[in-house]
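retry 2 of 3: previous attempt timed out while embedding guanosine-5'-diphosphate. Reduced batch size to 1 and resubmitted. Inputs unchanged:
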Amino acid sequence: MQLLEMEGKQLFARHGIPVPRGTVWPELPTGAATLVIKAQVPAGGRGKRGGVRFATDAAEAGAFARALLGTVIGEHRVTQVYVEERVAIERELYLAVALDRDRRCYAILASPDGGVDIESVPEHRLLRLPIDPLGGPTGAELRRVAEFLALRGDIRRQAEQLIAKVYALVLQEDAELAEINPLALTGSGLIACDAKLVLDASAAFRHPDWQHYAGSRNGTEVERAIAAAGAMGIEISRQGEITGVVSGAGLMMATLDMLVDSGARVRLMVDLGGVVLAGPERIAPVLRAVAAVRPQTTFVNAYFQTARCDDFARALASAFTDARLAGRVVIRLKGRYDAQAREILAPLGFDVHADLQPALAAALAGI
Ligand code: GDP
Ligand code: MN
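retry 2 succeeded.
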């Protein structure tokens, strides 16, 4: 989940990382000589796309803010504009702490060439330093990063502290990425002029306050309802005639591929995830959320190597009576105790199969 710049900057400030003074328009920061007007969309490259403007007084700031509201940047409509004091930048640097999935640790990324697309910075001008996940960055590592940014003396020491704070932030806030571009070198030290924060959505249960972030309202109404029920849904096409409900993310991708390959138009895909074996009282709310799209055909595809199919079948049967899905339901259920599972589901009027091909054919036959 990517935060808006102003949400990221609030977190920065809470962790002692300096940010410019700012307010949400129509409020203006007091006592600022010149202002920066910034569209709040969860996407970068706003500067190049007209989403960042500079104003010399309140009237001009207001005109820019009104002009930005309602415009679309990338695929996001601008509904909020943030206004900051404009800081005098001597040099623009790049600093990030990013999750390195291959190395299973965080890495510090730094470049003395900030402010531009970091992708266009030549390799030798970008430092990528993996950090020991148990020990955190050492003093020598912090110094190495600060020196790579060509900082000296007091500023170098400030940079070392700032980098340590960004590293502490990603750990404490369960972030996948904290990126500052530009990190501005000014007469009064280093200031984070931009903030890109990506939080690990899987850690949301540890952070009840995340629900206040604009990004937590991402997704369609149906997707949010499915997420609230503890599963994961993706609406594919409003014209789709088939909805897939599967047990696991990999099977979801495979099922979607097979349906699309067969020429079917898919309405919605749902991964039951952790809900799959949690009993009918957890599955029913997911199916109720699915029922809202009034699927013509629902294709349930589940394969269990360790869990028991009959347990799932009982939960599914109970959940279906509760959720009352419109349309046909075709179920492919394979794994331990799948014969018993079919005996539970078939009498209820569901079209139940063990093997994929006949199940798929049955699901597609009706459309
Ligand atoms: P992005 O384009 O979405 O990454 O938005 P940024 O917040 O990075 O702003 C784009 C550019 O505007 C930055 O690279 C800076 O050059 C400039 N900028 C942003 N804030 C300030 C500021 O306070 N002072 C000055 N002088 N330039 C700024
Ligand atoms: Mn930026």
